[in-house]
Design goal:
It is built from four helices and two strands. It is globular. By secondary structure, it is α+β, with helices and mostly antiparallel strands. A two-stranded parallel ribbon has the order 1-2. Helix 2 packs parallel to helix 3. Helix content is 44%, strand content 16%.
Length: 86
């Protein structure tokens, strides 16, 4: 996704997140995504669950925000990582 496209997204409607892939395995990718959303590092709740809860809260807030997640070299993701992002 080009920088021009990022700039065209309405920041009142969309929250953009860019993840450099860099060969991360599933847990590393989830940890990076949790950090990108500035979620706390609680080890008692799995990263996928924290991210899921965060996305639900975004959609249920008074000002609904839609996440746009771009992954550099996404074609190299492991299938479980890709499914997590879906």
């Amino acid at each position: 996704m080009t920088a021009d496209l990022w700039k065209k997204l309405d920041t009142n409607t969309f929250i953009t997140t860019f993840l450099p892939y860099g060969g991360l395995v599933r847990n590393g990718l989830l940890r990076s995504l949790a950090e990108a959303f500035r979620l706390d590092g609680k080890r008692t709740i799995p990263a996928l669950t924290r991210i899921h809860q965060h996305l639900i809260s975004m959609s249920q807030s008074q000002q609904t925000l839609f996440p746009v997640i771009a992954v550099d070299d996404a074609q190299h993701l492991e299938l479980p990582s890709l499914l997590d992002l879906c």
